[in-house]
Design a protein that fits this description.
cytoplasm; four-stranded mixed sheet; 28% strand; RHF-like; Ribosom_S30AE_C_sf; Ribosome hibernation promoting factor
Amino acid sequence: MIRFEIHGDNLTITDAIRNYIEDKVGKLERYFTNVPNVDAHVKVKTYANSSTKIEVTIPLKDVTLRAEERNDDLYAGIDLITNKLERQVRKYKTRVNRKKRKENEKEPFPSIPAATPETADQDNNDEIEIIRSKQFSLKPMDSEEAVLQMDLLGHDFFIFTDRDTDGTSIVYRRKDGKYGLIETVEN
């Protein structure tokens, strides 16, 4: 069962908005034979120009579904988010089932609804094709130096060994032009 945590920035989440989100995103449960108990994190934000941004994150056992959409109409944005998440689930399930079929194991997601003409084209393009492979050594540096290296190279991300933690980290450029840092941890 999917539980919803819905938060609004510059917007009060009304019962109508909450019900619409729960109804639309809740339909993803049909893709799972055993519906997982998960929390769907939904963030709805409005801007001065009356546009909205909807972010939905659903952490599952083996994968995290995440989608974000900006739209002038809140309800249209929710519909677009639902379509994106549905494509992600279908793509993930197709890959997992294909992999399990090769390993002669039982398919964990046997009930994928029939594809519509528009999703059939997308599902046929699910093959992962790595067109380039690259190797490089990770240099010890701090995150500030990594951002400078990334900018010098003109890349959107940069992988490095954190001088302080001795772990592998990634800096990246966000859509808003600021920077993000991903740090790895040992399990």
